[in-house]
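Issue: copy button drops trailing tokens. Both records pasted manually instead:
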Amino acid sequence: MFVCRLLHFVLLPVIYSSMHQAVPVVVPVTTETAEVYECVHSSDPTAANYTWYRQDRPSLPEGIKAEGNRLHFMQSTSDLNGLYICSITNEYGTFVASFYREVQDCPLRRIFKKVSAMWMLLMQTQSLPS
């Protein structure tokens, strides 16, 4: 397995109008099984409603799972790159935090995938002698 990945994580500025709440932010959380981002806000997370979406899609792409204030990337591929937005609604109003995620696939991994696919095709088209 090749472990070659470059991740760019950029916090974007947030504009809000309430003086009752701190500005929400999205922070990366390291886990063993997935790339996870958490939407952090000063209010009680259980008293808020969190909605995650990607700017260019009406719903989250396959390979991404939203659970409350956490966004889980189950696959670490470049096709999941984009601007992700966390919308928080609580008793004080609606607040928004966002981040831009960019993963660049390792060139060696792309080559390995192509060679593996070609090898499998070759094995399927040739019969092995007994």
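Record 2 (pasted manually too):
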Amino acid sequence: MATRQVSRLTLAPQLRDHLTANNLTTARDVLFCGPLDLMELLGLTWQQANALLADVSAQTTPPFTTAWELLTEANGPSAAPLLRTGLPTLDSALRRGVPAGSITELVGPGGVGKSQFCHSMAAAVSLPAECGGLGAGVVYIDTERKFSAARLQEMLNARIAAAQAARAEGHRALPGPGPIAAGAAAQAMQRVVVLSPASTEELSRQIELLPDVVLRHHARLVVVDSIAALARTEYGNAGDRDRGGGGGASGLAGNIMDRQQVLGRIAAQLKAAAESLALPVLVVNQVTTRISRGPQPPGPGAASGQAPGPGPAPGSGGGGDGSLGAALGLKWAHCVNTRLVLQRVGERRFLKVAKSPACAAVILEYVIGPTGLQQVDNADLPEVLYGNALAAPILNELDYGANDAWAAG
């Protein structure tokens, strides 16, 4: 909360202007000053300076609450609207759909449907209530230039057609108050704001201004597709060591450490925005393939007799002795609240809840259709999807001294 902007604090307008003029733009900047510093910078008295510090501290200190109050608030009339994914098994497991106030991460190899998931969520939020949507805005941060307005329009038209068909058949599942207005798809697309940062510095700056953008466009969802693209481009991948890039192992280690610091700052900004605005933040991550050159030590389940975790699924892009894991390392992995893993087995696609504070691990099969991701009912799940969660590969930032070859997934 110390990163909250001074402009969002409840202070006298003239005092806020004086703080900003003296480059005290966040609560952290103010609290790092002592009373004497504030007296000199702002012309305050000793009592006024101490009162200002106490006021800023009170506004940025998270208040305590009880579990009952949290539950009552989550189910009350002022609760954030439910954001359903359209995948019944996943929505049931997550209880209230994509959780608000936290970061949900999508991980998977290329072409498995991560961006399609993001587009479908944008459609679900931007559609009007009479079509089953929220009628709210979406902030879509597109770092890979993968956003497709044509695909979003296709999803919107398909969902509107399905809503019209349901109304014609007399179904009451849709909560809308009246008939579907003409031009609903165009109106929905006008609610989606697309930002395209070209660097991690620009991404951080846009996330810092996110509260203003969210409030201006009445957004109920923030999408970052993807968090890994800019970081891996600017700071390199571990695979650069074998390709002669990154200035050797020591240069690579420095790049990785710098990258983790940047990712930590961006994650903190995203968490602060999600919590203060009570909305879901959906972040896409890439995968990394680790290729082993020699015999590997037994996994975490070997000593306890548990079955090892699954290797790369057939058709998922892994091969040989490689295994797929989420990119960006353990520090980033601990920043996300919910992790959804998308993977292929042959020509079939599956979604798995790999990390969540609110539900057990569930697996479902899906296909990509006109409306987005659609669940396959009563699907037989392959055994390769099950395994010991402790042995599932989550790669560290850098394996110092190990003779392994790394390649970007």
